[in-house]
TrEMBL record:
Record's protein name: Signal recognition particle protein
All copies of domain Signal recognition particle SRP54 helical bundle, residue ranges: 2-87
Keyword RNA-binding assigned: yes
Domain SRP54-type proteins GTP-binding: 101-297
Binding site for GTP: 108-115, 191-195, 249-252
Source taxonomy: Bacteria, Bacillati, Bacillota, Bacilli, Lactobacillales
Reaction equations catalysed: GTP + H2O = GDP + phosphate + H(+)
Domain remark text: Composed of three domains: the N-terminal N domain, which is responsible for interactions with the ribosome, the central G domain, which binds GTP, and the C-terminal M domain, which binds the RNA and the signal sequence of the RNC.
Organism of derivation: Lactobacillus colini
Length: 297
C-alpha cells in the first residue's frame, strides 16, 4: 500500500497520546519530534516539515487549555487537518474550455508515465464525460512512444494523430488540432517528449507547442517514488511553462509519500490525479482529506 512506512511511523507517534486523559506540553513536544522525524524520513521538504510542526504545536497547545474529553483524539484531528492543508485542502478538477475541444498537454521527464497517463486520462474522460478524445503523439524522438500511444488508442478505440516523418512537434500538434476540429473531438490530449533531466532544448520545444496549442490544462506527470526530486522537477517545469496541475504516478509503489506531501506546499500546484498502477483504469482524482485519513489509518 502507498505510504505504509509513513503511516506506520505517524500512527506510532500518535498512539502514545490516545490513551492519555490529559496531555502535557511535554507529551506534545515528544509527539512532534516523532512526527517531524517521520516526515523527514518520508522525504518531505524540510521547510514544509518545519512549518507543519510549528502549526501542530500551536494548534495542540491552544486546544490543550480547553478541558477536553479525549485530548489524544483531538491531536490526531489536528494532524489530520494540517496534513490535508499541506496537500491543498480542496480537490481540484481539470479546466474545461467553454468551446470544444478542451486541450490537455501532458509534460514530464522520461519514464514518469506520461504516455500511459494520456491513455488513463482519455479512459477517465470517456467514462466520466462520455468524451470523444483525440490523442496527439508529440513524443517523436522515441518511435516506441508513438507505437505505445497507438496501442493505447486501439485499446480504447480512440483516434491517435501522428506524423512519422515530421520532426517539428509544434507543427504536428497544429495539424492534430485541425484534425480534432474536423472530427469535432471534445478533448485533445497531447503527449510530449521527455528527457532524463530538464534541458533547454526540451523546454523550448514545449514552449513552442504551448504557443500553438494554448492548452487549457498543462499537466506535469511526476513519479511519486522520486520523493523530493519530484518537487524540484515541478519547480523547473513551472518556471518555463504555466503548469495547471500535477499528476502523481506510481503511488502504488511509494512507501514514503514525500512527493505527495511536499509538492503542493512547495510549488503551489494542485495534484489533480494520482496513478496507482499500470492499467488504464488505475487513475484516481486526488482528494487531500481522503489521503490524509488514509495516511493516519
Ligand atoms: P513516459 O516515458 O513518461 O511516457 O512513461 P510511460 O508511460 O512509458 O511509463 C513508464 C513505465 O511506468 C511503464 O512501464 C508504465 O507501465 C509505468 N507506469 C506508469 N504509471 C504507473 C503507475 O501509476 N504505477 C505503476 N506501478 N507503474 C506505472
Amino acid at each position: 500500500m502507498a505510504f505504509e512506512n509513513l503511516s506506520e511511523r505517524l500512527q506510532k507517534a500518535l498512539r502514545s497520546l490516545t490513551g492519555k486523559g490529559k496531555i502535557s506540553e511535554e507529551d506534545i513536544n515528544k509527539a512532534s519530534r516523532e512526527i517531524r522525524l517521520a516526515l523527514l524520513e518520508a522525504d518531505v521538504n524540510f521547510k514544509v516539515v518545519k512549518d507543519f510542526i510549528k502549526q501542530i504545536k500551536k494548534d495542540a497547545l491552544g486546544k490543550e487549555v480547553q478541558e477536553s474529553l479525549n485530548p489524544g483524539q483531538q491531536i490526531i484531528k489536528i494532524v489530520d487537518e494540517e496534513l490535508t492543508k499541506m496537500m491543498g485542502e480542496e480537490s481540484v478538477s481539470l479546466n474545461k474550455s467553454p468551446h470544444i475541444p478542451t486541450i490537455i498537454m501532458m509534460v514530464g521527464l522520461q519514464g514518469t508515465g506520461k504516455t500511459t497517463t494520456v491513455g488513463k486520462l482519455a479512459n477517465y474522460l470517456m467514462k466520466k464525460d462520455k468524451a470523444r478524445p483525440l490523442l496527439i503523439a508529440g513524443d517523436i524522438y522515441r518511435p516506441a512512444a508513438i507505437d505505445q500511444l497507438k496501442q493505447i488508442g486501439d485499446n480504447l478505440n480512440v483516434p491517435v494523430y501522428s506524423e512519422l516523418d515530421n520532426k517539428d512537434v509544434a507543427e504536428i500538434v497544429k495539424h492534430g488540432l485541425q484534425e480534432a476540429d474536423k472530427n469535432k473531438n471534445d478533448y485533445v490530449l497531447i503527449d510530449t517528449a521527455g528527457r532524463l533531466e530538464i534541458d533547454e532544448q526540451l523546454m523550448d520545444e514545449l514552449k513552442r507547442v504551448t504557443e500553438v496549442a494554448h492548452p487549457d490544462n498543462t499537466l506535469l506527470v511526476v513519479d511519486a517514488m522520486t520523493g523530493q526530486a519530484a518537487t524540484k522537477v515541478a519547480e523547473g517545469f513551472n518556471a518555463d511553462l504555466d503548469l495547471t496541475g500535477i499528476i502523481l504516478t506510481k503511488l502504488d509503489g511509494d512507501t514514503r509519500g514525500g512527493a505527495a506531501l511536499s509538492i503542493r506546499a512547495v510549488t503551489g500546484l494542485p495534484i489533480i490525479f494520482t496513478g496507482q498502477g499500470e492499467k488504464l483504469t488505475d487513475l484516481d482524482s486526488f482528494y487531500p482529506d481522503r489521503m490524509a485519513s488514509r495516511i493516519l489509518g
